[in-house]
Amino acid sequence: MDPVTQYANDVLNGKIVAGKLVKLACKRHVNDLKRQGTKNFPYVFNESKAQRIFKYFGYLKHVEGELAGEYIQIVDFQQFILGSIFGWVCKTTGRRRFRKAYVGLGRKNTKSTILGGVGTYMTGFDGEYGAQVYATATKKDQAKIVWKIAKRMIKTSSDLKKRFRIRDSVSEIYHEKTESIFWPLSKDVDSIDGFNPHLGIIDEYHAHKTSEMYDVLVSGMGQRTQPLLFIITTSGFNLSSPCYAEYQYCRKILEGTLENDEYFIYIAELDEDDDIKKPRNWYKANPILYSTPRMMDYLKGELRAALDDPRKMRNFLTKNMNKWVDHRECGYMEMQKWNACGVDILPDLTGRECYVGVDLSSKIDLTSVTFEFPFDENYIVKSHSFMPEETVERKRKTDKVPYEMWIKDGWITATPGGAVDYRFVKQYLLDTAIENGWTIKEICVDSWGFGQIGNDLIDEGYTPIEIVQGMKTLSEPTKDFRDMVYNRRVIHDKNPVSTWAMSNAVTREDHNRNFMLDKKKSVERIDPVAAMMNAHVRAMLNIDNTSVYEERGIISL
Question: Please, what CATH class does the domain formed by 3-290 belong to?
Answer without folding.
Answer: alpha beta
